[in-house]
């Protein structure tokens, strides 16, 4: 008989965090209703990412789901709740074999991608970019909200890419479980107020 795997709760909102963000705001973001954080920083090495993860976990780890992007080994060493893997990262199936208890997300851009991610053992699909985003170089053309509807029903979809509060509401109506955001929190004059607006949008 296989071991029962209990993954952490999947948030409605993932706030992406890098070493350039104001970590002191993280507890306030949790108070505002943000229940997930993804650590993504392409400009630092794995050791620095591990240090960042420990900081974030110390601030919110008992009240929010913390996922490490790209680096399974960092997630395992720090006790993070999960890992999110891009299409050029460690294959999802290998990550699932190595870490049966972690929440695992996979970057997907089509229904076929989502179906394969499920076969490989992912818990959710990071789906996008839904709209235009300048947060990451080399992103493909936006998929649009209709693509969410076309890909729903296989795995929970976390819509990402240029999503503000109205976009988050549209993504939920289209069938997304939730959203992942960067600029709609961190680039706002009041990040905590912006977070509250997003939380209201995905209810």
Quick rundown:
The protein is of the alpha/beta class and 203 residues long. The chain has helices at residues 26-31, 46-60, 72-78, 92-98, 111-120, 145-151, 165-174, 183-186, 191-201; strands at 13-17, 36-39, 65-69, 82-85, 103-108, 124-127, 157-160, 178-181.
Keywords:
eight-stranded parallel beta barrel; globular; 8 strands; 203 residues; TIM Barrel; 38% helix; alpha/beta; 9 helices; 18% strand
Characterization of this structure:
Keywords: Magnesium, Metal-binding, Thiamine biosynthesis, Transferase. Pfam families: TMP-TENI. This is Thiamine-phosphate synthase. Belongs to the thiamine-phosphate synthase family. The chain has about 200 residues and is an alpha/beta fold. The chain is about 40% helix and about 20% strand. Strand 3 (about 65-70), helix 3 (about 70-80) and strand 4 (about 80-85) form a beta-alpha-beta unit. Helix 2 (about 45-60) packs across helix 3 and helix 7 packs parallel to helix 9 (about 190-200). The longest helix is centred in the first third of the chain and has 15 residues, at about 45-60. The mean pLDDT is about 95.
């Amino acid at each position: 008989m296989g071991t029962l795997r209990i993954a952490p709760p999947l948030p409605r909102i993932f706030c992406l965090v890098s070493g350039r963000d104001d970590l002191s705001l993280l507890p306030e973001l949790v108070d505002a209703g943000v229940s997930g954080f993804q650590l993504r920083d392409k400009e630092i090495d794995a050791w620095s990412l591990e240090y960042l993860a420990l900081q974030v976990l110390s601030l919110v780890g008992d009240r929010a789901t913390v996922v490490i992007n790209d680096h399974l080994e960092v997630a395992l060493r720090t006790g993070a709740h999960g890992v999110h893997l891009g299409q050029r990262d460690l294959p999802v199936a290998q990550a699932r074999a190595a870490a049966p208890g972690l929440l695992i997300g996979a970057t997907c851009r089509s229904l076929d991608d989502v179906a394969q991610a499920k076969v490989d053992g992912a818990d959710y699909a990071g789906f996008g970019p839904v709209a235009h985003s300048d947060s990451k170089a080399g992103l493909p053309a936006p998929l649009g909200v209709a693509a969410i509807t076309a890909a729903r029903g296989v795995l929970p979809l976390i819509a990402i890419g240029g999503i503000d509060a109205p976009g988050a509401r549209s993504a939920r109506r289209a069938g997304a479980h939730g959203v992942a955001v960067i600029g709609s929190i961190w680039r706002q004059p009041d990040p905590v107020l912006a977070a509250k607006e997003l939380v209201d949008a995905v209810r």
